[in-house]
Structure formats: C-alpha cells, structure tokens
Amino acid sequence: MRLPQIFLSWHKRILRMFEKSTEGGDNATPSIQDIAGRLAEEQQRLRQLEATSMPKERTLLVLGSKCVGKSTVINKFFDREEHTTRPTLALEYSFGRRIGSGRSPQVMNVWELGSLDNADQLLEVPMRTHGLQQLAVFIMVDLSQPQRFWTDLECAYKGLRDTSQELLARMTPELRETLEQRTLERVGHQNKEDLGTLELLPFPVVIVGGKYDVFMALDPSLKKAICRCLRSMAHHIGGALLFYSQKVPKLSKVLRDTISHMGFGSPSHPFRSHVTDHNEPLSIWFGTDSWSRIGDTGAQSVERIGATFGVAVPQLQLEKQLQQVPQDPAKDPGFKESLIDEMRAQKNEELATIMRDVLLRGKFESVQN
Fold first, then answer.
1. Are 141 and 208 in contact (CB under 8 A)?
2. Residue 326 lies in a domain
3. Is this structure's pTM higher than 0.70?
4. Side-chain half-sphere exposure of 269, counting CA atoms within 13 A
5. In a domain, 325, yes or no
6. Would you call 109 helix, strand, or coil by DSSP?
7. Is the domain of 101 the same as that of 227?
8. What is the Cα–Cα distance from 301 to 54, expressed in whole angstroms?
9. Pairwise CA distance, residues 206 & 234, whole Å
10. Suppose 65 and one of 5, 51, 142, 319 were both cysteines; which one would form an S-S bond, judging by CB atoms 3.0 to 4.6 Å apart?
11. Which residues contact 218 (CB under 8 A, 6 or more apart)?
12. Same domain, yes or no, for 25 and 113?
C-alpha cells in the first residue's frame, strides 16, 4: 500500500524544520541529540496518525475442492444473496470494510481460487499483492467425496508451501524472523514436543470440511479414517480444522465467526468448543491437537498421511478429475450473456455454412476426377 499524501507532508515538514534551525548560523545548528529527539517525536506522531487514519488490512485466500461451496460462504459472509452461484473459473477478488466505534477503518481482502489445476501462478497473486504478514488461508475440502478430497488437499498444501517459500526467500531476515515468531506463538504453546516434526506454513490455515450434512450418513469406519487424515494434516501444517455445512446453522455461524476473526480480528474466540470425536463435527483450534491425541502412529509426514488414507480410501487422480470438467464452459448456463451468446450463435451458423460448402465442393471435385 502506498503511504497517504499526509505522510509525505510530514516528511517535508521535518526537512523544513531542520532547514530553519540552520539559518541562525553555527550557534543554531542542532546537535545529534536534538535531531534524534525531534525524529522520535515525529515518528511517534506518524504512528499515532497511522493508528487513527490508515485502514488496517488483512487478506483471506479461499481455495479447495470444486463445488464445495466456497463462493456461497463468501457471499453469505458479505450478505450477498444470489439465486444461482456461477462457478469460479480462475481467481476472483472481493473486499469488505468495517469501521467500529472509536476504531480505525479495517479492510478485508478476499481472494477465491476457482480451480486447483495449474494454479501455481494464480496463488502468487494474493500473496505477492498483499504480502504474507496479514494473510490467512481457508482450504475447503468436500467431505461428501472422500475418494478425491485428499488429492485436492495435498495439491492446495503443496501450492501454498512452494509459493510461500519463494516469497520468503526474497524477504529480509528480520521479516522472516517475525513471521516465524508469529507462527510459533500461534501453534507452539501446547505442542512443544511436536514442533520438530511439523512443517508449519508462515500464515494461519483453516481446513474446512464442507458438506458435513452428507458426511454424517457415511459409514463410521470411513468417517473415522477421514477425521484422522484431516486432523493429521491440520496438525502437521500448524492449522485449525472445522467441519461445516450451510444446512446446519450452528456450523455456518462458527465458520462466519472464523472468517470475521481472521479478517477483522473479532470475535476473539470463534471456536466455541473443542471437538475431536469423529461422530461429531470437528472443531480444533490452532495448537490444540497433538500426534498422541490423533492416534498411536506417531509423527507423520504429508506423504505418509496420504498413503495411510489412500489404503482406506483409494483416491482419484487429477487426470480423472479433469474428465469431469465441462468440455465447453461457454455453454455453461451460469455464464449467460445475451449479446455475446447471440454473436456466438451467428458465428456458429456461419462456420456450419462454410463447412457444408467445403464438404459439397469436395464431393463435386471427387466426381469430376
């Protein structure tokens, strides 16, 4: 974000102050102590001005399984009622602004990634635009499709990990140290014995298991395997875990409060309970789980978590998932544009006429020969 114009005016004011102090000759030249004192005063004024006038920004990135309800969650949070939610094809941006009584304006940037396929370059956009310092990520997976959600979760994690590592390599050592300290403060209070086995991401990540209303009807053994997989992954990356369904008002409210907490800082405790029972909707805050609570398998890597879950539930690969994508997105009813559709229909008719002419010409030339 660019500094507002008033900050530039403060800078010019400091320069004029020092120029005036030197006009009275050698006796009027300020000492180093005087300069340091005046700079400290101006910096304090700038900090106060920033706290009262500059909006505080946070950024949320929402990604995960297709058709799990990412757009619906965002629209409901912003109180945008849409009768039909069109599919998100690439990367969409929205924002919210809140001004509390006696507080400075707050801005929440929300980015939604439509597809995980070839999303490496798109993931870099929100991270590079707003930075990692104020970033929070929501990974939504479809609990109603256990045969594919691990592939989605692993793809999302690796994209976030690789992109964040590239950005961290370009940061100053001081900024990297600040992010590491924040991460340890977020997850390390109750898991000091597990820290050496974790691969923590430098920003908070909330794994959201969507369509919990369908998940409730699954076989108990399958539900147990899914919950253990998600708990292991959330713990391994230092994230939180929450089950959600838009058909369950209580779960919808918890997710809405969590988005508000990550974006605006309130409420301070969005998870009202700590639930680890696979027969109930999971609700596990940052740093409140451990390998010993998850099971008797001990510390696990991402590869081991996926292999263990793949034995219980064989996963569809990305190639098979790609076959489910519509062959012609232009015919998707969610993207109707009357003027464009009419022009496209006209072009299709012209193309069909040309193809018929070419076919007839070919038959005529074959008869002549």
1. yes
2. no
3. yes
4. 3
5. no
6. strand
7. yes
8. 42
9. 8
10. 142
11. 146, 226
12. no
